[in-house]
Structures are given as C-alpha cells and as structure tokens.
Design goal:
About 30% of the residues are buried. This protein is about 40% helix and about 20% strand. The longest helix is centred in the first third of the chain and has 57 residues. The protein is built from three helices and four strands; from the N terminus they run ααββββα. The protein is α+β, with helices and mostly antiparallel strands. The chain has a four-stranded antiparallel β-sheet. A hairpin with a 7-residue loop joins strand 3 and strand 4. The chain has one domain.
Length: about 160
C-alpha cells in the first residue's frame, strides 16, 4: 500500500509540474500575441500618418481640410476600412483603409493635424497625431517640415 501511495504522489507532482509549465507557456504566448497586436497598431498608425503627410505634400489635401476634419472631398465623418492607410483629417475619424470595407478588429483611428511656423522661410512644421479609441495618448506622431502653398501657410497657428 505504501508503494502505491508514493506512486500516486509522484504522478500528482508530475501532473502539477506539467500544468504549471503549460500555464507559463500560454501566458508567454498571450504576451507575444499582445505585443504583435500593439506593433501592428503602431505600424498601421504610422502608415496612415505617412499617407496623410504625403497627400499634404503632393497638394492632394489642403492643410485647411486636415484641420477642418475632411480630406480629399470626404465629409470628415467616420471612415472605416482595411489596413492600407487613408481616412479623415483633424480629429476626424479615420481608419487604415480606402476600400470602404468594414474595419478589421474594430480598429478606428483619428488624425489630428497641427500646423506651426518654422524658423525656415517657406516651410511649415506639420505635426500629425494618430489617435486610437483604445488609447488616450497618440499611437504615432509624425512631425515634418513641409513647403505649403502661400494661402495654406497663412492658416498656420502661431509658434
């Protein structure tokens, strides 16, 4: 009887070690998954900011449109999409997509544009903050010197 009890105890200890190891591995995989989701969110926000900045530099979007919450003729209403970049302007909802499809994972972004004078003549400091509903702080901030047309430079905020 003593030998069977020791064998049962050994089996229970082995089972407990196995369960502990499995829970540690599952926790690690969960952390990795959360990290990948965060990285994907930041990457999509960076793509969106770069797209909006490129549109501004190319003259496809006026600075007033970014600040007013509309871009490229859109009304500034909530725009949702896939994962390639696009969407609204200053404090206007946007997501990373231009195909009009439903948002992936419910992720929606807002782009906040701030223009200010720079020390260099003819250049404006444009700061695009990409916000996400799940965070209070911006997910990504892109700050760049941009040559805006004269009428757009006049709309800058003071330094």
């Amino acid at each position: 009887m003593n030998r069977r009890g020791a064998m049962l105890l050994e089996l229970l200890v082995a089972l407990a070690v196995l369960v502990l190891a499995a829970s540690i591995l599952l926790s690690a995989f969960g952390d990795v998954d959360a990290s990948i989701d965060r990285d994907r969110l930041v990457s999509r926000a960076a793509d969106l900011a770069r797209t909006r900045m490129s549109e501004l530099e190319a003259g496809l979007v006026a600075a007033e449109d970014l600040r007013a919450g509309s871009a490229g003729g859109s009304s500034g209403a909530t725009a949702r999409g896939g994962r390639d970049g696009g969407g609204g302007g200053a404090r206007a909802a946007a997501s990373a997509g231009s195909n009009g499809a439903a948002p992936r994972d419910g992720q929606e972004f807002e782009v906040d544009a701030v223009l200010s004078r720079s020390a260099f003549e003819g250049l404006t400091i444009v700061e695009l903050r990409v916000l996400h509903a799940s965070r209070e702080q911006p997910v990504f901030v892109l700050r760049q010197l941009v040559a805006l047309p004269g009428s757009q430079r006049d709309a800058e905020s003071p330094p």
